[in-house]
Amino acid sequence: MPDEVPLARSRAEQFDDLVLDVVEDLERRWERELAGVEFAVEDVPWVDHTSPDEVVLDPDVLDDGTVPLARVLPPHREDGREVPARIVVYRRPLEIRAHDRDDLADLVRDVVVDQVAVLLGRDPEEIDPTG
Questions:
Q1: What are phi and psi of 109, to 5 degrees?
Q2: Distance between CA 58 and CA 56 in Å, rounded?
Q3: Beta-bridge partners for 100
Q4: pLDDT tens, residue by residue, 2-54
Q5: CA angle, 43 as apex, 42 and 49 as ends, to 5°?
Q6: What is the pTM of this model?
Q7: CA-CA distance, 67 to 8, in Å (whole number)?
Q8: Which domains does the chain have, with CATH numbers?
């Protein structure tokens, strides 16, 4: 397939595009507040399996029951250098919850908006009044 054809893009690349669309939209509205914030997509969250009977999630994780959907990592110092804030969206748990591509796009938007709201200490409705 030619690269211009949507089918030539993997599901992971299509998911990245959904996240990027939301991030670009939010950065237009919250340019100053989101300057330097990194956004990332990971397929699945890392889970510590040393205690299989109990899954304990950090308080910075957005979850659905015990399944992490996204995570906010606040800015911090590491090895003497500043590490910027980071929002990580987990692709597979969101894809599993979506019924179709439109549902996935809505879910991605809700999750990214929620995580930006957590990072900025605001209500999600203030971050994205259209949501």
A1: -60, -45
A2: 7
A3: none
A4: 666 656 678 899 999 999 999 999 999 999 999 999 999 999 877 555 554 44
A5: 95
A6: 0.83
A7: 30
A8: 11-44+67-126 (3.30.2010.20)
